[in-house]
Design a protein that fits this description.
This protein is α/β, with parallel strands linked by helices. The protein has one domain (9-64). Helices cover 31% and strands 21% of the residues. The chain contains two helices and three strands. The chain has helices spanning 18-29, 41-51; strands at residues 9-13, 33-38, 58-62. It has a three-stranded parallel sheet with strand order 1-2-3, with helices on one face. The longest helix has 12 residues, at 18-29.
Length: 75
């Protein structure tokens, strides 16, 4: 499939497992540069290694997106 996203930068939250990980994998296969976000660094490092271990196309940032950090909507 060609999504037309080669060399585009894409941010995926919840990327260390489940649907987020599958989405990140699909975008990487399409040639996008993907930034993986999730709560823990260890989970992200493991996910990034599984997705694209031999390239710099995936970067990761541990980011807890909770109300306590002020990054989510109204409480």
């Amino acid at each position: 499939m060609d999504l037309g996203i080669a060399n585009k930068r894409i941010l995926v939250t919840g990327a260390s497992r489940g649907i987020g990980l599958a989405i990140a994998d699909t975008f990487l296969q399409e040639g996008a540069r993907v930034m993986l976000l999730a709560r823990t660094q260890s989970a992200l490092q493991e996910a990034a290694g599984r997705l694209h271990p031999s390239t710099d196309m995936a970067a990761f940032v541990p980011t807890p997106l909770t109300a306590r950090t002020g990054l989510s909507g109204p409480q």
